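User: Thanks for the earlier help. One more: Flavin reductase (DIM6/NTAB) family NADH-FMN oxidoreductase RutF. Can you show the sequence and predicted structure together?

Assistant: Of course, both are below.
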Amino acid sequence: MPAEVVDSVRMRLIMGRFANGVAVVTSVDRSGRPQGFTSNAIASVSVEPPLLLVCVGRQARTLGAITASKAFAVNLLAAGGEELSRRFAGTGEDKFRGVRHRPSDRASGAPVLYADSVATVECVAVDFLDVADHVLVIGAPQAGAVYDRPALVYLQREYGSWRPGPPRAPRP
């Protein structure tokens, strides 16, 4: 089959074939109100020093919160978090209602969704890069936690879960 020109529809189709974890990125705005959005555009930038990036749409309220606080948390959702993923993908008034979370000690109070995550990382924003309709926010992790739960995954507009085998020892 020949390759086709990549427009926004083809791009969504192509990237839909890439299995992703699902995360909720959170921060607090100038008034201390929590903000957050669902994302699968998260990546490790480097291990030494530890850096990660999140892609944030220019229209997202959370971008203003991250810009103001210079901090955010990444909450990698656990299996069963489909409703939470959908809630944070929307534009509802109080996305945090009924969601167990705590304010980050290391990321200016960004909400940490400890009860619904397989891992959380609290970051200080160290750089902002404007790219097309998004801003890439580079974060320096300040604290993190890992929980023994199966992960929520997303592939071809469907949710699933993944539980890997026993953890391997980190490489030196």
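User: Great, one quick takeaway?

Assistant: The two ends are 44 Å apart (CA to CA).
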